[in-house]
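protien #1 (seq + structre)
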Amino acid sequence: MIESVLIPTPAERRPIPHFRQHPSLSSTPVGKNRLTLLCFRLGEDDYAMTTDRLLASITLRQLGETWRVVNSKLPFFRHFSRYRTTLIPLIDLRRLWSIPHDVYDLETPILIVQLPRFNAGFFVDQVLNDVQIFRQNCFPLPPWLFGRESAYFTAMLFCEGRLTALCNEQTLLTIAQQDYIYQAQQTLARRQKAVSSK
């Protein structure tokens, strides 16, 4: 469900005082006016991530073996896996945003995203399609979108007639206590190295 969202018409695309325009979407250089996005669904709502950070869209079966994080205090961060020889944390957006979902199975979609310090995998409900949009078709953010704080997103837009939230991947990891995840990743790597050296 969409909660407390004010949707500007095309004639009202100028910034609205209580809306927040993300810095990455303003003063765009000539020739970089398009965004290529991968849309996906969580619950009843649509979201998108920029494909310049997206490494792969795969299933849990393709990802292979996963390891449980011991003593994690974060309900949305419980597992690690290996993607192309690199250990990655798996972030459950459905738990983070309290979205009801079925039990995971081997066909659960996972988006592998490149981040500044490490890569991460995000569980989603359904991968939709790639879209190309002009940056001017990204609308400023209301304080809340889909019942969640706008800090999770960089903009809102319309894809195939549906309101879509453009995710801020870096903020997602910051909110998920990035340093904690990084330390846990290093701890797991050290344990595996110790086991393999025996």
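ok now protien #2
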Amino acid sequence: MCRVFVNYRTGDEEVCATLVDRELSAVFGDANVFRAGKSIPLGAQFEEDLLRNVWRSDVLVAVVGRRWLAATDRSGVRALDNPADWTRRELLEALSHQVLVIPLLVNGADRLSADVLPVELAELATRQYLRLDTRDIATGLQRLVERLGQECGGIPDPPAERPATPSSPTAHHGGIGSISGHQVTAVTAPAGPVNTGSGNQVVQHGEYGDGTTFVFGGRNAARQRFTRRDRDLP
């Protein structure tokens, strides 16, 4: 698996560095792509974390914009000439540990030249570079992925998509449920008389003969049945 370190300068194409990180993370896995703004945990010793991840990387992608070369530090000195500059330190560590360094020239940045680089970084001028134009960033990122795949033994296959599990209707035994839309009430397996509307409830017992009672609702609508003979008795 290809392990990539994204090197960039604060104030120069930071957004592009983030896009590079996202694309490479999607292809090679988030844990295999290091970008300081994303990968250093809160409270961690960032110096140790940065150096360790440079050393363990297979490739360092140096994001170089048009402000990269001439950017100055707080004292007004060109940042690349400052031994404490982290962009410079990461590049030097990568070169000294035989990590492949690929300059990524963004949005028309000039090709690196040895006569304008610090002596310690002059080797960058001899490294094959790649150009990236954010007006067609999808094409540029795809080309970067392909080149990294060549250097790292191929591009991993994307994870297989899991088929969607079809939903099946759920059967309920007993109870009352409402179905939205037209007002419908479903009653299954009632244990006794059920009234789901506003009218009278009709309950008819299964006994017949004299004295049989019919109940038509809960509003005193009850009636007894007698034969003529019984009613005529004194």
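The CA atoms of residues 44 and 50 lie 10 Å apart.
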